[in-house]
Amino acid sequence: MKKILVILSCMFLLVGCVLDKTPKNATEDLFKKYQKLDDVVLSDLELTTEGSDLTNKKQKEDYMKAMKMQYSDLKYEITDSDITGDTAVVTVNITVYDFYKVQKEANEYLKNNPDEFLTDNVHDKDKFMEYKLKNMLDASDRVDYTIKVNLEKEDDEWVAQSFDKTTLEKIHGTYDYERE
Length: 180
Prior knowledge:
Blueprint: H1 2-19, H2 23-35, H3 39-50, H4 57-72, E1 75-84, E2 87-97, H5 99-112, E3 118-119, E4 122-123, H6 125-137, E5 142-154, E6 157-160, H7 165-172
Antiparallel strand pairs: 1-2, 2-5, 3-4, 5-6
Helix pairs in contact: 3-4, 4-6, 5-6
Protein backbone atom coordinates (compact mmCIF):
# COMPACT_ATOMS: atom_id res chain seq x y z
CA MET A 1 0.00 0.00 0.00
CA LYS A 2 2.82 2.39 0.87
CA LYS A 3 4.37 1.79 -2.57
CA ILE A 4 1.10 2.67 -4.27
CA LEU A 5 0.78 5.88 -2.25
CA VAL A 6 4.36 6.81 -3.05
CA ILE A 7 3.81 6.15 -6.77
CA LEU A 8 0.55 8.11 -6.78
CA SER A 9 2.23 10.97 -4.89
CA CYS A 10 5.06 11.05 -7.44
CA MET A 11 2.59 11.02 -10.33
CA PHE A 12 0.67 13.88 -8.74
CA LEU A 13 3.87 15.87 -8.30
CA LEU A 14 4.90 15.28 -11.91
CA VAL A 15 1.48 16.25 -13.26
CA GLY A 16 1.40 19.25 -10.94
CA CYS A 17 4.78 20.40 -12.22
CA VAL A 18 3.67 20.18 -15.83
CA LEU A 19 0.43 22.03 -15.14
CA ASP A 20 2.16 24.64 -13.00
CA LYS A 21 5.01 25.55 -15.39
CA THR A 22 5.96 29.18 -14.82
CA PRO A 23 8.61 31.52 -16.27
CA LYS A 24 10.64 30.89 -13.09
CA ASN A 25 10.45 27.13 -13.67
CA ALA A 26 11.49 27.52 -17.31
CA THR A 27 14.42 29.74 -16.28
CA GLU A 28 15.49 27.26 -13.63
CA ASP A 29 15.34 24.47 -16.21
CA LEU A 30 17.54 26.55 -18.51
CA PHE A 31 20.25 27.09 -15.89
CA LYS A 32 20.12 23.44 -14.86
CA LYS A 33 20.91 22.59 -18.48
CA TYR A 34 24.06 24.68 -18.19
CA GLN A 35 25.01 23.08 -14.89
CA LYS A 36 24.38 19.55 -16.15
CA LEU A 37 26.19 20.25 -19.42
CA ASP A 38 23.14 19.39 -21.50
CA ASP A 39 23.77 18.25 -25.07
CA VAL A 40 22.15 21.39 -26.52
CA VAL A 41 24.39 23.64 -24.40
CA LEU A 42 27.51 21.68 -25.37
CA SER A 43 26.52 21.69 -29.03
CA ASP A 44 26.26 25.50 -28.96
CA LEU A 45 29.61 25.68 -27.18
CA GLU A 46 31.25 23.47 -29.81
CA LEU A 47 29.92 25.73 -32.58
CA THR A 48 31.35 28.75 -30.77
CA THR A 49 34.69 27.00 -30.32
CA GLU A 50 34.86 26.04 -34.00
CA GLY A 51 34.25 29.67 -35.00
CA SER A 52 36.93 31.02 -32.67
CA ASP A 53 40.57 31.95 -33.23
CA LEU A 54 41.80 28.88 -31.36
CA THR A 55 44.30 27.32 -33.72
CA ASN A 56 44.85 23.75 -32.60
CA LYS A 57 43.06 20.78 -31.07
CA LYS A 58 44.62 21.18 -27.61
CA GLN A 59 43.56 24.83 -27.39
CA LYS A 60 40.01 23.91 -28.37
CA GLU A 61 39.95 21.08 -25.82
CA ASP A 62 41.27 23.35 -23.06
CA TYR A 63 38.74 26.04 -23.93
CA MET A 64 35.94 23.45 -23.83
CA LYS A 65 37.20 22.25 -20.41
CA ALA A 66 37.27 25.81 -19.08
CA MET A 67 33.75 26.54 -20.31
CA LYS A 68 32.42 23.22 -18.99
CA MET A 69 33.93 24.15 -15.64
CA GLN A 70 32.25 27.56 -15.92
CA TYR A 71 28.85 26.07 -16.73
CA SER A 72 28.87 23.22 -14.23
CA ASP A 73 30.00 25.49 -11.37
CA LEU A 74 27.60 28.32 -12.30
CA LYS A 75 25.49 29.37 -9.32
CA TYR A 76 22.18 31.16 -9.77
CA GLU A 77 19.32 32.60 -7.78
CA ILE A 78 16.06 33.72 -9.32
CA THR A 79 15.09 36.98 -7.64
CA ASP A 80 12.11 38.31 -9.58
CA SER A 81 9.62 37.47 -12.30
CA ASP A 82 7.50 39.93 -14.23
CA ILE A 83 4.77 38.49 -16.44
CA THR A 84 2.85 40.59 -18.95
CA GLY A 85 0.49 38.49 -21.05
CA ASP A 86 2.52 36.01 -23.07
CA THR A 87 5.90 37.56 -22.23
CA ALA A 88 7.94 37.46 -19.06
CA VAL A 89 11.22 38.76 -17.72
CA VAL A 90 12.94 36.77 -15.00
CA THR A 91 15.73 38.42 -13.02
CA VAL A 92 18.57 36.09 -12.06
CA ASN A 93 21.68 36.67 -9.98
CA ILE A 94 24.53 34.47 -11.19
CA THR A 95 28.00 33.73 -9.87
CA VAL A 96 30.64 32.59 -12.36
CA TYR A 97 34.41 32.31 -12.65
CA ASP A 98 35.97 35.68 -13.42
CA PHE A 99 37.52 34.88 -16.80
CA TYR A 100 37.56 38.59 -17.63
CA LYS A 101 40.07 39.11 -14.81
CA VAL A 102 42.09 36.09 -15.98
CA GLN A 103 42.31 37.51 -19.50
CA LYS A 104 43.14 41.00 -18.26
CA GLU A 105 45.93 39.67 -16.02
CA ALA A 106 47.26 37.52 -18.87
CA ASN A 107 47.42 40.55 -21.16
CA GLU A 108 49.23 42.50 -18.45
CA TYR A 109 51.68 39.61 -17.98
CA LEU A 110 52.33 39.55 -21.72
CA LYS A 111 53.00 43.29 -21.69
CA ASN A 112 55.52 42.93 -18.85
CA ASN A 113 57.09 39.64 -20.03
CA PRO A 114 56.96 39.57 -23.84
CA ASP A 115 60.09 37.42 -24.15
CA GLU A 116 58.25 34.45 -22.63
CA PHE A 117 55.99 34.30 -25.67
CA LEU A 118 58.57 34.38 -28.44
CA THR A 119 59.45 31.69 -30.94
CA ASP A 120 62.44 32.51 -33.12
CA ASN A 121 62.25 36.10 -31.81
CA VAL A 122 58.67 36.50 -33.05
CA HIS A 123 55.58 36.80 -30.87
CA ASP A 124 53.96 33.36 -30.69
CA LYS A 125 50.17 33.71 -30.42
CA ASP A 126 49.81 30.01 -29.62
CA LYS A 127 52.14 30.21 -26.62
CA PHE A 128 50.19 33.13 -25.27
CA MET A 129 46.82 31.46 -25.89
CA GLU A 130 48.00 28.33 -24.08
CA TYR A 131 49.09 30.53 -21.15
CA LYS A 132 45.65 32.20 -21.02
CA LEU A 133 43.81 28.89 -21.25
CA LYS A 134 45.90 27.38 -18.46
CA ASN A 135 45.03 30.35 -16.26
CA MET A 136 41.34 29.99 -17.12
CA LEU A 137 41.46 26.34 -16.07
CA ASP A 138 43.13 27.38 -12.80
CA ALA A 139 40.66 30.21 -12.11
CA SER A 140 39.11 30.41 -8.66
CA ASP A 141 38.01 34.05 -8.38
CA ARG A 142 34.31 34.50 -8.96
CA VAL A 143 32.13 37.41 -9.98
CA ASP A 144 28.42 38.13 -9.53
CA TYR A 145 26.09 39.50 -12.19
CA THR A 146 22.40 40.21 -12.48
CA ILE A 147 20.88 39.17 -15.78
CA LYS A 148 17.41 39.29 -17.29
CA VAL A 149 15.97 36.24 -19.03
CA ASN A 150 13.26 37.08 -21.57
CA LEU A 151 10.63 34.41 -22.11
CA GLU A 152 7.63 34.04 -24.38
CA LYS A 153 4.70 31.71 -24.03
CA GLU A 154 4.57 29.36 -27.00
CA ASP A 155 1.86 26.66 -27.13
CA ASP A 156 1.19 27.09 -23.38
CA GLU A 157 4.86 26.66 -22.55
CA TRP A 158 7.33 29.34 -21.41
CA VAL A 159 10.38 29.45 -23.68
CA ALA A 160 13.54 31.44 -22.96
CA GLN A 161 14.62 33.69 -25.83
CA SER A 162 18.19 33.82 -27.11
CA PHE A 163 20.58 35.70 -24.88
CA ASP A 164 22.12 38.95 -26.10
CA LYS A 165 25.92 39.36 -26.32
CA THR A 166 26.23 41.03 -22.90
CA THR A 167 24.25 38.31 -21.14
CA LEU A 168 26.34 35.60 -22.79
CA GLU A 169 29.54 37.38 -21.76
CA LYS A 170 28.26 37.44 -18.18
CA ILE A 171 27.40 33.73 -18.23
CA HIS A 172 30.84 33.01 -19.72
CA GLY A 173 32.53 35.22 -17.14
CA THR A 174 34.17 37.37 -19.82
CA TYR A 175 32.07 40.51 -19.42
CA ASP A 176 34.15 43.70 -19.08
CA TYR A 177 32.68 44.99 -15.83
CA GLU A 178 35.23 47.81 -15.70
CA ARG A 179 33.54 49.61 -18.59
CA GLU A 180 30.40 50.22 -16.51
